[in-house]
Design goal:
This protein is of the alpha+beta class. The protein is about 30% helix and about 30% strand.
């Protein structure tokens, strides 16, 4: 299409190359940031789900007026948490659907757990059931398998009163 001076309208090859080059540079800068964002969101959502599961266990113990147990399992591929009645034996090889007596079960991939105790028990008052006379908190650290940045992990502290306190921490 010609304008009134006889020149054709459009873009030159140089203009197109410069535009594509700028887009490539912006994409190269954005992709690593997006990967960090995805990892951080995955850890954050799984942390929130575990925190909700622990609150459910505590509430169930108070509601039932009897102890309720949370089992934590961690493997190279991910983790699993189960809320169960204390009389049921834990089965580390069973999947969520295969366990009788389980109130709630969750399992996730790509994020690992490190914890003080594999079993957390809440008594009928919602307090941690301690094996010893000392009141000790339970610590759970959650991090993505590819954790690389600052403050991409979460530390959860379950106090002897059953309250849960969490914070973002450096990768372990």
């Amino acid at each position: 299409m010609a304008d009134r001076h006889g020149q054709t309208a459009g873009f030159t090859l140089i203009e197109l190359i410069v535009t594509v080059l700028v887009l490539a540079i912006v994409a190269a800068l954005a992709i690593p940031a997006m990967q960090d964002l995805v990892r951080n969101n995955r850890v954050s959502s799984q942390h929130n789900e575990l925190r909700t599961l622990i609150a459910l266990a505590r509430a169930e113990a108070i509601r039932r007026n009897e102890s309720v147990v949370v089992d934590l399992l961690s493997s190279a591929s991910g983790w699993q948490a189960r809320v169960r009645e204390p009389g049921q034996p834990p089965d580390p090889d069973a999947g969520c659907a295969d366990i009788p007596g389980v109130i709630r079960c969750i399992e996730h991939r790509h994020v690992s757990l490190e914890f003080d105790a594999e079993t957390i028990e809440f008594n009928n008052r919602g307090y941690l059931q301690q094996a010893s006379e000392e009141w000790m908190a339970v610590t759970i650290v959650m991090a993505h398998h590819d954790c690389s940045g600052a403050l991409q992990a979460r530390e959860m502290l379950i106090l002897p009163t059953g309250q849960v306190v969490s914070e973002r921490i450096e990768c372990p």
